């Protein structure tokens, strides 16, 4: 659950500032990507855990309300995961994640391998223990299912996980932390020694694609005024995975995902800000027509 405080500027260490609004919004990178993909038209099942506290039923209901299958979402004793988020007037954010129930997902439960095997793609993030992420990646690779990894929160990645990843989608800060290269194109090229494809999200500068044997290219972001950038990257990944699963060329899939992210940053909240497929299609088509003029 995202506990979101909106304020003019985020406090510095030791400083107290006044906020203008507070919201609780279902979030977490896994939930965000699941809801984004479902609203973008994907058929989505969620593997994870919530606690038996007051937040657990709300998180489950948010997923189900977006059309996500929660049969594999476990309920465990203890608190659900939470994120303390401060959003400033420029739409920027700072986040502290407390894993809670997420920390119990150290492997797959009965039926999870079959769910993964039936999918076109497995979307993974790093808010679960690494053992759980690796278990999912191994199951996907064994069944020939495409794996998409968002390496966030940024941390050293095991060689095995990288070897099991088909598409890596870091943001520019995560890419720099993982490769030591602060120029995104250099970071992308470095990643290709480890994974076959990478998309680095660049915020207002769009996104950068690189693959082995392909000249890297950038797809621009849409020029909009950001209200809250929380979950913009997750919205992008969810929409990108749906578009790629439909067989769209990567450049078009990235542009479609950029339209989804542009919608999301114009609204407050994480999962509550994510657009429907119709909204994405409309903005994407409008942008293409404007570019053609």
Structure description:
This protein has helices spanning 29-39, 55-65, 112-117, 130-142, 159-163, 172-179, 184-191, 232-245, 250-265, 277-292, and strands spanning 2-7, 19-25, 48-51, 73-76, 82-87, 93-98, 121-124, 146-149, 167-168, 197-201, 207-211, 214-219. By secondary structure, the chain is an alpha/beta fold. The protein has a single domain, classed as Ribokinase (UDP-N-acetylmuramoyl-L-alanine:D-glutamate ligase). A hairpin with a 2-residue loop joins strand 11 and strand 12. Helix 8 (232-245) packs antiparallel against helix 9 and helix 9 crosses helix 10. The mean pLDDT is 93.
Query: Could you name the CATH class?
Result: Alpha Beta
Number of helices: 10
CATH topology title = UDP-N-acetylmuramoyl-L-alanine:D-glutamate ligase
Indicate the overall shape. globular
Beta fraction of the residues? 15-25%
CA radius of gyration: 18 Å
* Percentage of residues assigned to helices: 25-40%
Assigned CATH architecture: 3-Layer(aba) Sandwich
The CATH superfamily bears the name Ribokinase
Report the order of strands and helices. EEHEHEEEHEHEHEHHEEEHHH
End-to-end separation: 43 Å
Poorly predicted tracts of residues: none
User: What is the domain tally?
Assistant: 1
Mean pLDDT rating: 93
Largest sheet: 6 strands, mixed
How are the strands of the largest sheet arranged? Answer: 7-8-9-10-11-12
Coarse structural class: alpha/beta
Cofactor: Mg(2+)
Catalytic activity: 2-deoxy-D-ribose + ATP = 2-deoxy-D-ribose 5-phosphate + ADP + H(+)
Subcellular location: Cytoplasm
GO cellular component, one term: cytosol
């Amino acid at each position: 659950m995202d506990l979101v405080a909106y304020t003019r500027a985020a406090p510095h260490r030791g400083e107290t500032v006044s906020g203008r609004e507070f919201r609780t919004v279902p979030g977490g990178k896994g939930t965000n990507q699941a809801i984004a993909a479902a609203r973008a038209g994907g058929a989505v099942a969620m593997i994870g855990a919530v606690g038996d506290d007051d937040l657990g039923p709300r998180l489950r209901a948010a997923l189900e309300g977006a059309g996500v299958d929660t049969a594999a979402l476990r309920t465990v004793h203890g608190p659900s995961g939470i994120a303390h988020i401060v959003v400033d007037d420029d739409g920027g954010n700072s986040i502290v994640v407390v894993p809670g129930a997420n920390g119990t997902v150290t492997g797959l439960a009965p039926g999870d391998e079959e769910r993964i095997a039936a999918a076109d793609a497995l979307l993974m993030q790093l808010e679960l223990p690494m053992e759980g992420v690796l278990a999912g990646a191994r199951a996907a690779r064994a069944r020939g299912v495409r794996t998409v990894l968002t390496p966030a929160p940024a941390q050293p990645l095991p060689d095995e996980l990288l070897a099991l990843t088909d598409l890596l989608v870091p943001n520019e800060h995560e890419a720099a932390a993982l490769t030591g290269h602060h120029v995104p194109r250099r970071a992308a090229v470095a990643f290709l020694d480890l994974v076959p494809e990478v998309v680095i999200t660049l915020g207002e500068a769009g996104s950068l694609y690189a693959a082995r044997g392909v000249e890297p290219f950038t797809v621009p972001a849409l020029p909009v005024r950001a209200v809250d950038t929380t979950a913009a990257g997750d919205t992008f990944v969810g929409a990108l995975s749906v578009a790629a699963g439909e067989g769209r060329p990567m450049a078009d899939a990235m542009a479609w995902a950029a339209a989804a992210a542009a919608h999301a940053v114009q609204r407050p909240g994480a999962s509550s800000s994510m657009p429907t497929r119709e909204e994405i299609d409309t903005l994407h088509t409008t942008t293409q027509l404007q570019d053609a003029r």
